[in-house]
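Help needed: design a sequence for this.
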């Protein structure tokens, strides 16, 4: 088999076809001389809120900050417990910890690897204040069941949609459920900037106003600090770049779904099991992940044939050294733990060709 080089991700602006748009957006900011919390941020917040279908969107410096500030703005604080998934970037749990609350890890569904409503229910205690469901790999969790449970138990829902820009679940856009949604604009996301950035989406005007103050040091007006806030402001350059990219998000997600379906068709007769979204037609397909008993050997074989591959995520959050003190030892989230030992993430981004996907499938079939 002829080897070819397929990177895990390619952030080249030339390949996205947006080099001119991005250059124009940067020039616009430089010409304005306004770099923090200006007209570009305001315009992007409005445009992103319209995309998600919420009344408000508030830009932050990162997705991690978006989660923390959304939790704080909804009343989560020290002594509270917040239930979330262990199978995610550990930044989700770190965002909870920054509020002073205690992250509690529920297990995931065995096929979709998204947060299990049944497991969440078992983790709820009198101290539980909120849940942070993660829309993993761009696919929605069982948000209806979790939202229903939250309403019955009078709990908050803060969505971690940091991998799910533009995704829907049974027709409803993710990031608009519950009290608030949160997104990251890290460069590798479906909608990524040229650096860090994040945003909180909500239909609640009080939450939006409080997040706006908290992100800017708690200021209600210049030099008047009503709360103890932080410095977490989306800058004008990132907002301008994201505005240039936002109109392409739907087409990019559609292309990701096409490529994912091609992977699935090609791997159907193999021993590899793709992680299955609960609603494939609405998934943003941020990552394409397969399960195999031999992930290390599979990744080595892919690398030998020029294909980059990664693991998302090799250590579940409850087994991270930072969270060992919580007492959730190995065996407490068996589905997440089994997944972490059997996953391989394959290249998936809009500028890949059908031939690239076919090549990866052939390499895997050869293994």
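Sure. Designed sequence:
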């Amino acid at each position: 088999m002829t080897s070819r080089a397929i990177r895990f991700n390619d952030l080249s602006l030339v390949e996205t076809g947006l080099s001119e748009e991005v250059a124009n957006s940067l020039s616009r900011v430089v010409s304005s001389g306004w770099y923090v919390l200006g007209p570009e941020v305001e315009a992007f917040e409005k445009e992103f809120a319209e995309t998600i279908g919420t009344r408000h969107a508030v830009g932050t410096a990162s997705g991690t900050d978006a989660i923390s500030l959304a939790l704080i703005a909804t009343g989560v604080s020290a002594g509270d417990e917040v239930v979330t998934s262990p199978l995610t970037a550990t930044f989700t749990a770190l965002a909870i910890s920054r509020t002073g609350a205690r992250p509690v890890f529920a297990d995931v569904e065995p096929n979709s690897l998204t947060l299990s409503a049944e497991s969440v229910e078992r983790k709820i205690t009198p101290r539980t204040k909120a849940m942070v469901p993660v829309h993993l790999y761009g696919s929605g969790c069982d948000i209806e069941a979790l939202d229903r449970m939250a309403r019955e138990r009078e709990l908050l829902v803060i969505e971690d949609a940091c991998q799910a820009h533009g995704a829907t679940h049974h027709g409803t856009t993710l990031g608009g459920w519950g009290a608030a949604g949160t997104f990251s604009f890290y460069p590798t996301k479906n909608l990524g900037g040229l650096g860090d950035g994040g945003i909180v989406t909500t239909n609640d005007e009080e939450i939006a106003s409080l997040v706006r103050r908290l992100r800017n040091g708690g200021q209600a007006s210049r030099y008047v600090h009503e709360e103890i806030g932080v410095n977490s402001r989306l800058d004008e350059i990132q907002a301008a770049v994201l505005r240039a990219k936002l109109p392409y998000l739907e087409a990019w997600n559609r292309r990701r779904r096409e490529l994912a379906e091609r992977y699935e068709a090609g791997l159907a007769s193999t021993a590899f099991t793709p992680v299955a979204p609960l609603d494939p037609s609405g998934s943003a397909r941020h990552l394409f992940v397969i399960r195999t008993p031999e992930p290390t050997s599979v990744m080595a074989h892919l690398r030998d044939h020029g294909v980059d591959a990664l693991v998302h995520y090799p250590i579940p959050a409850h087994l991270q050294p930072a969270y060992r003190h919580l007492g959730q030892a190995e065996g407490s989230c068996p589905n997440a733990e089994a997944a972490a030992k059997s996953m391989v993430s394959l290249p998936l981004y809009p500028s890949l060709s059908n031939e690239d996907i076919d090549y990866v499938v052939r390499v895997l079939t050869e293994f």
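The longest strand covers residues 56-60.
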